[in-house]
Amino acid sequence: MNFIITATLNAIKQIYNEEIAESVINLQETRKEFEGQVTIVVFPITKISKKSPEETANAIGEYLVENVEEVTAFNVVKGFLNLSIANSYWLNLFNNDLLATDFGKTKSNGQKVMVEYSSPNTNKPLHLGHVRNNLLGYAVAELLKADGYEVYKVNLVNDRGIHICKSMLAWEKWGNGETPDTSGLKGDHLVGKYYVIFDKEYKKEIEALITQGQTEDEAKKNAPLIKEAQAMLLAWEAGDDAVISLWKKMNGWVYDGFAVSYKNLGVDFDKYYYESNTYLLGKDTVDEGLEKGVFFKKEDGSVWIDLTADGLDQKLVLRADGTSVYITQDLGTAQMKYDDFKMDQSIYVVGNEQDYHFKVLFLILEKLGKSWAKGLHHLSYGMVDLPSGKMKSREGTVVDADDLVAEMIDTAKQKTEALGKINDFSEEEKQELYYNIGLGALKYFLLKVEPKKRLLFDPSESIDFQGNTGPFIQYTYARIKSLLSKANYQLKVGGEQLSVDLSATELEMIMLLANYPTELSNAAKAYSPAFLANYLYEVAKLFNKFYHEVPPIVKEENEALKQHRLNICKITADVLKAGTAILGINVPERM
After folding, report:
1. 172 within domain boundaries
2. Looking at residues 247-269, what average pLDDT do you find?
3. Interval 333-362 mean pLDDT
4. What are the Cα distances from residue 377, in Å, to 267, 347, 485?
5. Number of C-alpha atoms within 13 angstroms, CB side, residue 559?
6. Nearest to 556 by CA among 482, 508, 489, 511
7. What is the Cα–Cα distance from 148 to 154, expressed in whole angstroms?
8. What whole-number distance in Å separates Cα of residue 425 and Cα of residue 536?
9. What is the pLDDT of residue 423?
């Protein structure tokens, strides 16, 4: 629509003898209740015209109809100038742009961006909250890649600390040497089992100490198990061979388990960072901050930063005994990641409970004068609830990611078999279809909601072949592929020969499809897969309306019209496939 902007600038120059910036011209899609396809917001132009919005809009509208071939009519609604654009323009746009092989593909912008997501603890399996994190991180990375960025996907694994030692200690005490092979459990499930056992035994000790007269806080500190776990952590940090060996063995089990979960979720990473290698980082950054006067040292030797002038508080960055806190490690890790990749942006996909932490982290890095700190962004997301209530990991009632995936596949199998349309599928094809529908439903349901919003996930509601769901989009794609197959479709550009007017739905279809690159770019800029997900639903929904409104396409006798409508089907399928792939969703060729 750049030609509309150019023509409007010319109109203002001719009518009012004024030149204005291109940015003043605001174009919108015309609301459905009014005639036209493109709307110019006239209010900003009244400063130049010195006329009412209606008079200004009428003057510009008359100029455009008279001087711009593509503008066939206009109407004015208050300060909005609605323009009707000729069918020939939309047909040319469709044939020349949408049918081009590079439609929807963005050239490299030369920018590098890192997306850090997943960041699991190695003391338990992934749960529903991790599922949202992984799917969100993967989709944002793929969005940015599609928008022309060079993208690095990284995973910072929390593989050390007291929580890891709890699982290790419980396995030592009550494991009887069981392994993933002897127990038949995935490695992450086995280690998680002992994390739960530790918690139960620890609570028993706390209750016993309370009955002996200790306060709850005293009992939590004095329970033998927690003291043993703390001693194990100290031994790990001191490099004790036996503890390190146990740690490597149990973490190895977890990594094997995570690998299976990541594969099932369809996510991947370019690089893994491990807290066991990064937990000592950041002390050089603290020294740098002291030299620059960004940090200050208290009498006990602890190091702090005062952020009260920025509306925050004082923050500890190094303990009095010289040991790190989380912010210290994060400062050092941020520097290391930048040194490794020299990226222009770095996105941390982390739940909203860490909002304050990242405000502090980014502000400190800015105060330290890090040139790359302005490119840091916390993609904060809300918790996922189930109809039955909130998740609690330490009590063993967590919604396990692997169980959830299995349940989604099983539900997809039941609902698909009930439709009775896959009798000619091989067993292998059926299993692949159940997986694609189940995972497509899960991913779409979690990604169609804005990241910041808390959401209620209902597995049964997500697998529906009607409505705003993944399976509806998948089914629409499969329907188009079936239609194209029946028509022996081959790509031909025949729309220019059409002598008939486009139907309202056909025109709307072309306009919506033409928006794909813009929708993609907007979703990438907002770090919001929800923008893209809901756009794809609108495409699928409108296509079904188009499909039901036009006469059977395969039987159409006007070859040019038939080819044109098949081309619409083809581009719709291409957009659905490309868009869902960015979301990590596979679209089956048959359903």
Report:
1. yes
2. 97
3. 97
4. 21, 5, 45
5. 5
6. 489
7. 19
8. 27
9. 87
Average of per-residue pLDDT values in the chain? 93
Instruction: For tokens 């169609």, name the residue.
Output: 448
pLDDT score of 75: 97
Is the separation of the CB atoms in 135 and 267 below 8 Å? yes
* Confidence label for 499 from pLDDT (cuts 50, 70 and 90): low
SS3 75: strand
Q: pTM for this one?
A: 0.92
Q: Looking at 271, 293, 328, which one is the last position of a domain?
A: 271
Whether the CB-CB separation of 20 and 28 falls below 8 Å is answered with no
Pairing of strands 71-77, 112-116: unpaired
Residues comprising the chain, all counted = 591
Q: Where are the alpha helices (DSSP H) in 83-186?
A: 87-93, 128-146, 162-174, 180-183
pLDDT at residue 502, rounded to an integer? 82
Q: What is the rounded radius of gyration, in angstroms, for the C-alpha atoms of the chain?
A: 30
Domain range enclosing 431: 413-582
Provide CB contacts within 8 A for 82, sequence distance 6+: 30, 34, 35, 36, 38, 39, 74, 75, 76
For residues 346-367, give the mean pLDDT.
97
* Separation in Å, CA 325 to CA 279, 281, 395, 591: 9, 11, 27, 53
Tally of domains in the chain: 3
Q: Does residue 297 belong to any structural domain of this protein?
A: no
Is residue 291 scored above 70 in pLDDT? yes
Torsion angle defined by CA atoms of residues 387, 392, 393 and 395, in that order, rounded to the nearest 10 degrees:
-120
Amino acid symbol at 248: K
